[in-house]
UniProtKB/TrEMBL annotation, chain A:
Organism: Streptomyces fuscichromogenes
Membrane-related topology note: Multi-pass membrane protein
Protein name as it appears in the record: ABC transporter permease
Any one Gene Ontology BP term: amino acid transport
Cellular component, GO annotation: plasma membrane
UniProtKB/TrEMBL annotation, chain B:
PANTHER family reported for this sequence: HIGH-AFFINITY BRANCHED-CHAIN AMINO ACID TRANSPORT ATP-BINDING PROTEIN LIVF
Protein name: ABC transporter ATP-binding protein
Source organism per UniProt: Streptomyces fuscichromogenes
Gene that encodes the chain: livF
Lineage of producing organism: Bacteria, Bacillati, Actinomycetota, Actinomycetes, Kitasatosporales
Coiled-coil features, chain-numbered ranges: none
A Gene Ontology molecular function term of the record: ATP hydrolysis activity
Any GO BP: L-amino acid transport
Amino acid sequence: MLSYVLAGLALGAVYAVAAGSLVITYVASGVFNLAFAAMAFTVARFYYFLNTEQGWAIPPAAVVSLMIFAPVFGALLYAVLFRHLRLRSTLVKLMATVGLSVALPPLVQLVLGHLTNVTAPALAPRPLAVFHPFGAVLNADQLATYIGLAVVLVVGVGVLRFTEVGLRVRALVDSEALTSLSGTNPGRVSLGVWAVSGTLAGLAGILVAPTSGLSAEGMTYMMSAAFAAVIAARLRSLAVAVVVALTMGVVTDVVQKYLDPSSSFTAAVIPSVPFAFMLVFLLYYAVRGEAGDAVAGGALDRAISPQGGDPSLMRTAAVPQGRISSSSIGTLAVVVVIAVVPAGLDRYWAGLVAAGIAAAIALLSYTLVTGEGAMVWLSQITFAGVGAVVAAELVDRWSWPPLLAVFLGSVLVVPVGVLLGLLTIRLGDLYVALVTLTFGSLVQTLVLTQDPFYDFGSGQPMERPSFAQDNQVFAYLALAVFLLVGLVILNVRRSTAGLAVAAVRWSENGAKTLGISVIQTKVLLSALATYIAALGGGFLAMNFRYTLPDSFHPSLGLVWLAVLVTMGSRSIVAALIAGVVLYVMPGIFASYLPDKFADVPTILFGLGAIGLATHPEGVVAQTGANLARLFTRRPGWAGTAATTLTAPPDPAEAAPHDRSARGEVQQLPTGGQP
Amino acid sequence: MSTDAPLLRVKDLAVRYGSAQALFDVSFDLSPNSALAVLGPNGAGKTTLARTLSGLVPSCGGSAEFAGQDLLKLTAPRVRRAGLLHLPEGRGVFPGLTVQENLRMALTADKQARNPGLERAFEIFPVLAERRRQPAGTLSGGEQQMLSLARALMVSPRLVIADEMSLGLSPKAVDIVFASLARARDNGVSVIMIEQFARRALDFADQGLILHRGRSSWSGPAQEAGEELLHRYLGGAAAA
Ligand SMILES: Nc1ncnc2c1ncn2[C@@H]1O[C@H](COP(=O)(O)OP(=O)(O)OP(=O)(O)O)[C@@H](O)[C@H]1O
Ligand SMILES: [Mg+2]
């Protein structure tokens, strides 16, 4: 028993370091660091480089990695990226961290080399010493983990409580505006916090490497488990985060004592523990209405941020005038190009284009849920994966015709999405993002990577309709379906339901007073988006003739989203381009460049999402608007287009907390914020 | 009044929040060691003026020179370090920090002896000494205001901008506020006082400035602001 508790405490300690770091960076800089796993991987990889590859002894390697490399790295990230995100919306901030977590691991691998053997030593010397306190088993790695957590806690609490630096950090957490009125530069404090979070990420990464592997995926799993503790802490309370993280670790290991280690039930229960914790806390907070968007800063910070003249309202007004003509031409052009292309390609390339179009169908579900509904759902790729599995099952077991299986099978996935939608309906953006990502990890572990669905990675076989055996024909089929779905989305946008969505997007309170049921709209949206995602998944499976479960990994979902937002998260045609880029670009790199550069597209995708921090409308929309401005002669029109451009990055950021009469009245097109 | 170069010279200051302009061409001078009362109805732009001078919100026109420095170019922390202390409207305290920590935060900008400052604050407001370990967010509204004010009295800035420090206080507490600011003046601190008690503020100040819808509608020596003038600009109720 004690052995299980001891092992659990070690696991919990890693979760605690991760959760603590996530909380402190969030409260002190307003950014929830989804790139934590990527940072952990980076530092751990660097440590591995020094310790294992360069043969440094453990102490110097640890000191250089954790005390020099990690803080400099964290501070650098803040200085070049997160500093600019402070006033942006949750969505934009998350996108930037998503971009970073997409770009960073391959970048690191490009520099330090690919690892094939992903088990890495941690901070304890090898061969691993084993102790027997009170007859239990405790290895040196676990001991090192305890010590790591203890040092972090003692130093962290000591600094926060008793030093002037700590005082400033806590002041910043309370109110940025008041902090700067007191003569303390909030930027500098945040820089320090990011430096520390680099160290914490590195520590968590190094400590977890021996058990979950030195890979971005292993770190991502560790991070999403830590989310449960972060949610329990309601994103703010360090103490709660640490306690829950430790408990979670202990529970995870102790239940193993009572389970048969070889059963598949056990294999399912273990990874579900963090999710169960998350669920319990979420329900608890949701019932008490306490899981809304955490409002950063104090009253003064809200009072000085410009309110009213809500730019989002202006943008909705501007879009129909400015976009329709330019975008319909653009859409047509892109569709024509993509339609012509497969005809001229050989099998390989036509196959890639077809895959891209199939992915684009799934991407449309992000367009709907994120672009239209402004909900940061990170689980769409999982719905796609489940859709693929369901369709394959229907074809395989019940001998349904493939197309029917895909179209009807996707309906079966809808309840899952609706359930998730209902569960998260009252939650703030950030909670939704965390819950959906964890949900994705869970389904991936529990379903998609289990047999009979996994089958050594190839998944189940999936047939194509008999008339579309040829890649080119299949590409056209996918394109037709894509356009169909696109039309549906356009109609959703235009119809009354669309208005409701727009209203929900701009202001929940506003929508409520309009008498529109937010719940109904959101549920409708999640149902439709889930269906579309599953449909896309089915098409991907048909394209590859196998379900390929690994291609639906949640971390790839981040890549999908990164590419989509880079292209523009609200435009239908952007989804098409994004899908094609997603598959064709790696194809180009793989065919024409050395192996070493195989990951470059992923890096570019991530960087694209980071670029979103500066061009929040995405490149396609941006270029479209620029072109529209160039070609238009009508001054009024140009004016609107220009307004669209100068509009502040993000509508949600202006979403007023107390929507005063002033905010409601001033809905005129304006120049946006300074 | 002294004829030296002014401590603060504001010219044609303009400010907008997003699309809505809140200040238009506001100008005034403030001599060293003097006090200015800024009056005006709700929404006139008084608070906005204070926020702009302290660097919290950006200006969109005009200039402001403080002790030879271009104020509008400085960030809020630098403004504070240059000697301008802004006590914001409402509860200008860190709710999560204890009373004592709030006071320590106030001292971070001035690298002077810490303990004399703390002692001074506790001496003026004994109630704060009793509650020094209590989180500021759990103090009553009036106590929070006292705490905010204490932050100004324990250091020696060149200029204090006090935004509605007497709002919502009992008459006795209002007396303390005025007495405290008078004490600051005696120590050579200039004061910009934004007040609802117009008469009292003008009695306290050397100069008056009345804002109306973001513009300055009257400015001049405080003693020249008679009842009739206040009535005209502020309406009956405000001229108390
Ligand atoms: N953050 C903001 N965003 C948009 N407009 C604002 C903001 N803060 C203030 N305003 C507007 O600027 C104008 C001036 O406001 P300000 O707070 O400066 O007035 P005030 O004179 O201090 O009023 P009061 O006596 O009520 O404190 C008002 O019309 C107000 O609505
Ligand atoms: Mg005011």
